[in-house]
Design goal:
Layout: H1 10-27, H2 29-35, H3 37-48, H4 52-63, H5 67-110, H6 124-150, H7 157-168, H8 170-181, H9 185-200, H10 220-234, H11 240-262
Helix pairs in contact: 1-6, 2-5, 3-5, 3-6, 4-5, 5-6, 5-7, 5-8, 5-9, 5-10, 6-7, 6-8, 7-10, 7-11, 8-9, 8-11, 10-11
Length: 264
């Protein structure tokens, strides 16, 4: 259940609101699981996906194959696998954090706690900006910290944070998308699955070429994945991260407009 966050000034109100959100997530096991899902995915990658040495030893021991002859094939296969897995990781990380706050807002609406907005010291726009700040920052930090845990596709720290920061702008879009269209908790969970699927689907672009891959252009995660693949291949991210931010902010604005129209 959400906490009351009344305050005498806008700054104090927003600080109390952020603190209350953190407590609410910590107390709800499902929301806490969603919040730490990126780290769990990274740990699964770390311990369950074999590396080059493991595959080489397995091939040599079981099939008596010349390791040096097949090493280039193993390296190429692992490079492609890591590119796909890490693209899924960066795509799903922010969506999971956004889902947490979308479900939180839906719960508050069902419990009619949004009626308290009439007596808050800030406008609805400022209130929603404050609510979106925490999932955005959380998505960036958790993604950036969990990325190296996976042990795949190592990149410079600054590029990891840049990819995480751009992807984090997806979190408020998911949050607002869930609360704008879900009338209740059951439908909210269905929307979470739908939005998470949309965040992962652009990985298909790895297997196709333009113009077919442009079908994923309206999805911010697509541009984030392109930036990741570009960084892995050439060390640069190009304009893809900037496009990802623009696309995510456009969806955020659209979903905010929808939510503002239907709020009580």
């Amino acid at each position: 259940m959400a906490q009351s966050v009344g305050a005498t000034s806008p700054a104090a109100f927003i600080s109390a609101l952020v603190a209350a959100d953190m407590r609410n997530v910590a107390r709800n096991r499902l929301l806490a699981l969603f919040a730490f899902a990126p780290l769990l995915i990274a740990l699964i990658y770390r311990f369950l996906v074999p590396d080059e040495s493991v595959l080489a030893e397995l091939a040599g021991a079981r099939f008596s194959i010349d390791l040096e002859a097949i090493r280039p094939l193993i390296v190429n296969a692992l490079t492609n696998l890591h590119a796909l897995l890490m693209a899924i990781f960066v795509g799903v990380s922010a969506s999971m954090i956004g889902a947490v706050y979308g479900l939180l807002l839906v719960e508050e609406r069902e419990e009619r706690l949004t009626a308290n907005l009439r007596v808050t010291p800030v406008s609805f726009a400022v209130y929603m900006t404050a609510r979106m700040a925490l999932p955005t920052v959380a998505a960036m930090i958790i993604t950036a910290l969990a990325y190296p845990v996976a042990g795949m596709a190592p990149l410079p720290v600054i590029q990891v944070f840049a990819i995480a920061a751009a992807g984090a702008t997806l979190a408020p879009a998911i949050t607002l998308g869930v609360v704008a269209f879900a009338p209740g908790r059951v439908s909210a969970l269905a929307l979470v699955r739908l939005f998470s699927l949309c965040a992962v689907l652009p990985v298909i672009a790895w297997f196709i070429s333009p113009p077919m891959e442009w079908i994923f252009a309206p999805i911010g995660a697509y541009w984030q994945m392109r930036a990741l693949w570009s960084a892995m291949a050439s060390g640069g991210v190009g304009p893809d991260l900037a496009i990802a931010i623009v696309v995510n902010l456009a969806w955020t604005g659209l979903f905010y407009w929808r939510f503002a129209r239907r709020r009580e």
